[in-house]
Amino acid sequence: VLLLTMYLRFRWQYRHVLATAAKLSCPPTLPIIGNAHLFFGDITDVTKNLRKISSNSDGIFCFWMGPIPFFVIVDPADIQIVLNSSSMLEKDNLYSVFRVFLGNSIFSSPVHVWKKYRRLMNPVMRPSNVEHFLPAFNEVSRKLTEQLSVSSPPSDRSDEIFEMAITASTRTIFSRKIILDNFIEAKSVIHNIGKLLILRLFKFWLHTEWLFRLLYGKEINECLKIRDKCMSDLSQEWKDGATIKKEVIPGANQNSDRLSGLNLVDVMFENLPIVSDDHDWIDEIITMIAGASDTVVSALSFLLLT
After folding, report:
1. pTM exceeds 0.90 for this model
2. Contacts within 8 Å (CB) and 24+ apart, 8-17
3. d(CA 44, CA 29)
4. Cis-peptide, bond into residue 28, ω within 30° of zero
5. Shortest CA distance to 182 belongs to which of 115, 108, 234?
6. What is the dihedral angle through the alpha carbons of 277, 281, 282, 288, rounded to the nearest 10 degrees?
7. Separation of alpha carbons 214 and 251, rounded Å
8. How far is CA 236 from CA 233, 268, 272, in A?
9. CB count in 10 Å sphere of residue 24
10. pLDDT by residue (tens digit) across 91-117?
11. Given this model, what pLDDT does residue 242 score?
């Protein structure tokens, strides 16, 4: 009786959403589980299933996880309309799967937190401000080009690509060169966190927090330990970032040269405290480094290997 009551309440509460989903095309469903079978197997299998569905769809379609519909938009023009809508700012509960590693950053935070901190970070992301970081982008790009231009036997060049990506991302956050003593650990933790997040995203049963921690608790704790160690090593950079603005500290070496322009650390120290009830600026730094590095590595790897 309780389950039936919950189901009927769900149907009534989301009747408009369900009515919209019923009008859209969807892959053939199975009783009770809907299209959940498409997410069985490894990530490669799931990706192939989703690509096949997308290629056979026209614009917008949905698939069902049990009684819950998920809407998929294929056309980028339609996606832009949705993303530009002020009524679509609130994130779905699905974004909570990222919070175990990324905290309450603007990537995963509810709209009332997102609005406040997105507004504070807007000046950093303006094209006119990003132009100040072009010298850093050019420098790391030239270095990578020189490394890849050297004739050598076939080998894994991901270390060079990752070093370039993380150097570029940290320089936009701190506006100066950062010496990473634990580079291999940083690469490892970003890679492993990415794998866990993708796994959790595509395996819908892992959206349940306690089950995810039960099955992957060891991997989660190891990633968090390395992540916290890396951030601890960078903590001095935040303190230096509060005092180094647009000049070079007398007697400092070249690694302390600061790029012009506003960076994330500037915004952080202008909007203290670092940790509040609903936000932690460290989460923003982690998200920026991980997101930027992963995106650049993926894009360059795809470019070089295809």
Report:
1. no
2. 10/67, 11/67, 17/69
3. 21
4. no
5. 234
6. 140
7. 52
8. 7, 14, 17
9. 15
10. 887 788 888 888 889 988 999 999 999
11. 54
* CB of 162 closer than 8 Å to CB of 297: yes
Domains of the chain by residue range: 1-88, 111-305
- Reported as a single tens digit per residue, the pLDDT across 175-230 is 777 766 667 777 888 888 888 888 888 787 888 889 999 999 999 999 998 888 88
Amino acid 27 reads P
Query: How high is the pLDDT of residue 180?
Result: 66
Q: How confident is the model at residue 255 (pLDDT cuts 50, 70, 90)?
A: very low
State how far the Cα of 211 lies from the Cα of 266, in Å rounded to an integer: 39
Based on the number of CB atoms within 10 Å of its own CB, is 306 exposed (0-12), middle (13-18) or buried (19 or more)? exposed
Q: Quote the percentage of the chain above a pLDDT of 70.
A: 91
